[in-house]
Design goal:
Helix content is 33%, strand content 0%. The protein has a domain of 42 residues. It is mainly alpha-helical and 90 residues long. The two termini are 56 Å apart. The protein has three helices and no strands.
Length: 90
């Protein structure tokens, strides 16, 4: 039984814990309890690979790339139609 659980966990690339391994065994027709699967996994040292936390990536303002010039310089009044286009992304 422990070898079959180890094969299920390995086939899932260590993403299946005891509830999903139990469901997989039940789907194969093996009658086994959820707590027994959890105990066999503990005894066999079968653990789930922990997912790394996603690190947020913010804007890097210290880059070497050219910066677009500020053509409006906060003067939003247009002298003629279709001369100034604005957008707000907030």
């Amino acid at each position: 039984m422990g070898a079959r659980i180890a094969a299920i966990v390995a086939a899932s690339r260590r993403t299946y814990g005891s509830p999903r391994a139990h469901a997989e065994l039940r789907a194969e027709g093996v009658r086994v309890g959820r707590e027994r699967v959890a105990r066999l996994m503990r005894e066999g040292g079968l653990t789930v690979a922990r997912r790394r936390r996603r690190v947020p990536r913010t804007t890097d303002s210290r880059h070497d790339h050219p910066v677009a010039p500020n053509l409006l310089d906060r003067k939003f009044a247009a002298e003629r139609p279709d001369a100034v286009w604005l957008a707000d992304i907030s």
